Give the backbone structure.
Amino acid sequence: MTTHTQHAEQLSTTTLLRFATAGSVDDGKSTLVGRLLHDSKSVLTDQLEAVEHASRSRGQAAPDLALLTDGLRAEREQGITIDVAYRYFATPRRRFILADTPGHVQYTRNMVTGASTAELAVVLVDARNGVVEQTRRHAAVAALLRVPHVVLAVNKMDLVDYAEPVFAAIAEEFTAYAASLGVPEITAIPISALAGDNVVEPSAHMDWYGGPTVLEHLETVPVSHDLTACHARFPVQYVIRPQTAEHPDYRGYAGQIAAGAFRVGEAVTVLPSGRTSTIAGIDALGESVDIAWAPQSVTIRLADDIDISRGDLIAPSADAPAVTQDVEATVCHVADQPLSVGQRVLLKHTTRTVKAIVKDIPSRLTLDDLSQHPAPGQLVANDIGRVVVRTAEPLALDAYADSRRTGSFLLIDPADGTTLTAGMAGASFAAAAEPGAAAADDAEWDF
């Protein structure tokens, strides 16, 4: 019993890292994830026994660790990953939520879903094939989604005799490409997921590599959960008016702080109305507190009785976002039905849903070479492009570059509630690292 309590206490003090894996088909992504789970002792005995049994029945001598992650029957039968699978595991140093995303081109939307909340992306490359079209596509998606850390895992090093020049050439090509897209940090690691080299344990075959293993890097990469440095934003989810004898005048606004911190006594503006007030009190877990920060769920009380309802946004008056009805954004179209110019949609941003119309689709991005196809007229499933949307009511939307939480939105089919498109407000890629590349980038994205 003591051990269980100690383990729970240990987990409560560790940080959480959300990361996504991406790679072409047969690059060994599922094997890498299986190896991570297996070697970090995150697999239950009965799961391992089931995998060993399934592997033996296929005539495989060693357990096929990919079977630990390919959960759908169709995935196992075809030997490919189809949907995003979320895995939860922990080491004494950190807890992890892993989004295992598919490699096929037609599942670009699945990678966007998995990477949208990730702080790190692991992009797998087969050492024999090097950087391929799909690798560039995954790097571009990671850059569009502003994933802060990217790991290039050069897999199957055992099949190229663990040769350092092979790894160095791939790492150089990928790093140059990803940096030109504005990916802030890239770490290249040579691995063999099948043999276990540099996944959890350091490799005995690559003494020329002195960097961390994949798990070491995952455990030590700085996780910026400090959303307090961001612009403070509080989308109202619910208005609490008990009107009881005990609380006759209580009026509180409940929700989750999306970013930043709020303090009692701070001057705030409610958007889109623009009315101002001061924070009179903050209630968290039934107690009054002087300060609260993201991602806490709290109830904020204001000094003035002003008209506030679900979907309104509370922000510090000194740092309130501008409201707009014209949204320009990069989007990934996720529905099977196309998105067309003139289409009527619902736009969901934080807790607010408003009617909108697609005014323009200026371009569709070709991820292979980052060229743009002007005025495509519509976007189909897995397309990434620029859209201009006009909303019926003003929205307090941040640029996605400033806040992934309050700069993102969904376009929804008003007829049946289907999610059509995932959107990121503002500019497409971050500015590139080198001045020369930045200029080229701007020329490429002349919207």
